[in-house]
Structure prediction request, 424 residues.
Amino acid sequence: MESFTLSNGLRVVYVPMDRRSVLVTLKGNVGRRAEHETEVGAAHFLEHLLFDGTERMSTSQELARFTQAHGIRRNGVTSAEHVEYWASGARSQVEYIFSYLGDITQHSLLRQEDIVKERKVIAQEAALRKTDPASALSRMVLRDVIANNHPLGRTIFQDEEFLASMTSDVLRGYMQRVYGAENFVLGIGGGISESDARRFAEQSFNSFPTLGAATPPSPARLREGSYTRWYERDIEQAQVEMVLPGIGRVHPDALTYVTRAMVFGRIFAQGSASHLYQRVREQEHLVYHIGGDSDMFSDIGLWSISFAATSENIPKVFSAICDEATHFLQRGVSREELESAKVPLLTGLEMSLDSYDSILDAHMNALLTNVEFWSVDMLMEHIRNVTPEDIMFFARELFAMPCKTYILGRKEAHVPGPDRLVNA
Prediction:
């Protein structure tokens, strides 16, 4: 891995790998979290607009024909904290990959007719997200669990509410305020030499503006206490998510936390060998699937258990989860169980070394968050060093945390979740 800076201050991460393909990606701290109250929905809306025409290729159809003619795959994504635009293709097409991505991110037209079109398209996208109960609930959870209506909790559902307020002035103002070299990192990976990476990056992104300083995010925090939220929907199985507090990426103990969370998750809640899967599905037959995982933002984090169940089974699942958590603290974890749980984690990390896009993303995220980069070797070493005592300490802390329960389903599914997984 190499890193360098373009003449306009745009940081670049370069990950060469002996591949026939090349990936170029531009990622920035300009997700929904960066929006002001008068800009709700601008991050996602702007991401759509950048694919609708540029000064050189004035319509979305021209852009699509260009990418098709050169075999370029491309897309954009907006999340709570980031917006990312990427293009990939055969290394023989590298000049066109750079040209395309540089063009849409610096020379898009942002026309009124495209704004009118994208209002309709984003409304359809929001409707699609609502049709999947798990997807819908995860967005509802994020909106509610972060305190004070913080922008970090905004989702496409809030984007939809403010579609009418997305005007050319709002969108251009948002772009001018946050789209600058200080808020972005350019990633280049695959079968491209360093000299070509430097040359094409400078050539294609030298018009990317500068702001003078990065845009600082406003601090976020989770709601306090235990509670249950119910959202009514006429579906056969209710979707349930139980949320516990975690920590953020900037926390000084983040690496220790995340590696212990990974190992604990494999033992207790992730995969068919986990305690919860064996108890709730295989022994009591209450669900088709149950799982748990952690989610880490820059300054806050979540650890959650999710499942779908019929209304009459939900209280039984809650009881089984709490009972299994109590038994876990009583029984402890054996060295054999611990080492077995580490194997798929270590295997997955080792396999990620074959993928330059995952290496690029990790480096870019570290730069954008201004934290230490966690290499695969670092993560593997920390996982190998996790002890049974570490897991039990993690479990005791987690199970004592206040639990926030969210249920999407019929009225009869509206039953209260536990205050904690294990009561003191």
